[in-house]
Automatic annotation (TrEMBL):
Family, per entry: Belongs to the CD36 family.
Reaction catalysed by this enzyme: tetradecanoate(out) = tetradecanoate(in); (9Z,12Z)-octadecadienoate(out) = (9Z,12Z)-octadecadienoate(in); hexadecanoate(out) = hexadecanoate(in); butanoate(out) = butanoate(in)
Protein name listed in UniProt: Platelet glycoprotein 4
Main location: membrane
Location relative to the cell: Apical cell membrane; Cell membrane; Golgi apparatus; Membrane raft
Chain segments annotated as transmembrane: 425-444
Disulfide cross-links: 224-292, 253-314, 294-303
Annotated source species: Fundulus heteroclitus (Killifish)
Alphabetical UniProt keywords: Cell adhesion, Cell membrane, Disulfide bond, Glycoprotein, Golgi apparatus, Isopeptide bond, Lipid transport, Lipoprotein, Membrane, Palmitate, Receptor, Transmembrane, Transmembrane helix, Transport, Ubl conjugation
GO function term, MF aspect, one: low-density lipoprotein particle receptor activity
Top-level taxonomy: Eukaryota, Metazoa, Chordata, Craniata, Vertebrata
One GO biological process term: receptor-mediated endocytosis
Pfam families, sorted: CD36 (PF01130)
Membrane topology: Multi-pass membrane protein
Length: 454
């Protein structure tokens, strides 16, 4: 009788273990569904969600660092038409005061528009000098003042510079050079399409409609004028690293995509690092999709020049050209027309670190170079051909602080990890009990059979 009880108990234990194991197995897909539902609910940018609260409030500290290019042989360029030789000065660092978003308006097409007030404070401790440092560079003030004459009435502009006792080059303070592009009060709107103290960004609020496209109106082309994706502060949850991410950059007045590069650990959080592709600023010869960004056949050498984007169409006609620092991924001629450049992938690329479950961008480094074009000229220096003159590069960075990282891990990662642990424990313990009970049942049964034979 006792043997029968043992066998019945072991069978019951095996059944219990199987039930626990099945429960653990069922909890895996069910738990995943719960996580997905919760994250999707909280990741949608609409009033009441965690994503909306974090997105609408004042953001983390953002630093923008400037490096200015100093021309070391200005007189040789003017007298002999020598290729400019430049050295990089900097960084000159500003802390951006990201204030709370204003005039947030939700629209019926799954988008939300907002105004973002901005400002900047010089950070001496993070800078290589002061705002009073003097640097010899291209006469930006003269060129920006006569921007509308640059292409159509080039000789008139040259005469204006010459008769006003100006030069192709100028020696000005860092503060003056940076103010050629932006008002002092609003330094970070350097490339704002609206050229004012606030700028309009459009961000898809529904994860199911993040690929919604709107028209920019800068490029006179339906494809190039599409506004794709988000403002890069967040992306749809459950990011698939096999797929590129899309976002609009007001600095270059166009939408771009980035592809997965590697997984890195950021303060205990695994994030996907996405980098811009070389094809982003490739010439239309190598990337036909960039054909509509090529608007001037002369300056782009019949659209064969790679690495430079003319954004004058969104800068009120100012002759501003954007590239990656030191013409990274640009045509070799860009680095022979101006000497002293050393492009480096690690130091000059743009990347974003995205947490894959929520789609939040937790760290980024945006690197851009501002350029002007000039030439040919016999009046203001013996410049024999159209030359890209470098003005400055800037690096804008932001990363989550320790407090936010701890909150993120506590509120999200720890819960997900706890659910995964419960799943694994139930499955493991259930299978363990089931297997052990079966083994002991077989042992007891064999012992019982042998005793009966004896």
């Amino acid at each position: 009788m006792s043997c029968c009880n043992r066998r019945c108990g072991l069978i019951a234990g095996a059944v219990f273990g199987a039930v626990v194991a099945v429960l653990g197995g069922i909890l895996i897909p069910v738990g995943d569904l719960i996580i997905q539902k919760t994250v999707k609910q909280e990741a949608v940018i609409e009033p009441g969600t965690t994503a909306h609260e974090n997105w609408a409030a004042a953001g983390a500290k953002v630093y923008r660092q400037f490096w200015l290019f100093e021309v070391t042989n200005a007189q040789e360029v003017l007298d002999d038409g020598a290729a400019p030789v430049v050295t990089e000065r900097g960084p000159y660092t500003y802390m951006m005061r990201y204030l709370a978003k204003d005039n947030i308006t939700f629209h019926h097409n799954h988008t939300v528009s907002y105004l973002l007030p901005n400002g900047a404070i010089f950070e001496p401790s993070m800078s290589a000098g002061t705002e009073e440092d003097k640097i010899t560079s291209l006469n930006l003030k003269g060129f920006l003042a006569g921007a509308f004459f640059l292409l159509l009435l080039h000789s008139i502009l040259e005469t204006m510079i010459k008769t006003s006792n100006s030069s192709l080059f100028q020696r000005r303070t860092v503060k003056e050079l940076l103010n050629c592009f932006v008002p002092t009060k609003y330094l970070i709107i350097l490339f704002s399409p609206q050229s004012r103290s606030v700028y309009l960004n459009v961000l898809n609020k529904d994860p199911g409609h993040f690929a919604q496209t709107l028209n920019l109106g800068f490029w006179n082309d339906k494809y190039c004028d599409m506004l794709n994706g988000t403002d890069a502060s967040s992306f749809p949850p459950f990011v698939d690293k096999k797929e590129p991410i899309f976002f609009f950059s007001s600095d270059i007045c166009r939408s771009v995509s980035a592809s997965y590069e590697e997984t890195v650990n950021l303060k205990g959080i695994d994030v996907y690092r996405y980098s811009l592709l070389q094809s982003t600023l490739a010439s239309p010869v190598d990337n036909p999709d960039n054909k509509c960004f090529c608007s001037n056949m002369k300056t782009t050498k019949n659209c064969t020049l790679a690495g430079v984007l003319d954004i004058s169409s969104c800068q009120e006609g100012r002759p501003i050209y954007i590239s990656l620092p030191h013409f990274l991924h640009g045509s070799p001629s860009l680095r022979t027309d101006v000497l002293g450049l050393n492009p480096d992938e690690e130091h000059h690329k743009t990347f974003l670190d995205v947490e894959p479950t929520t789609g939040f961008t937790l760290n980024f480094a945006k690197r851009i170079q501002v350029n002007m074009m000039y030439g040919p000229s016999k009046v203001c220096g013996d410049v024999k051909s159209v030359t890209v003159f470098l003005s400055s590069t800037f690096k804008q960075t932001a990363t989550l602080d320790d407090e936010t990282a701890d909150m993120f891990k506590k509120e999200l990662m720890s819960r997900i990890q706890m659910l995964e642990i419960i799943q694994q424990v139930l499955l493991g313990v259930g299978l363990g009990i089931f297997v052990l009970c079966l083994i002991f049942y077989c042992v007891v049964r064999r012992s019982h059979n042998q005793s009966k034979l004896a």
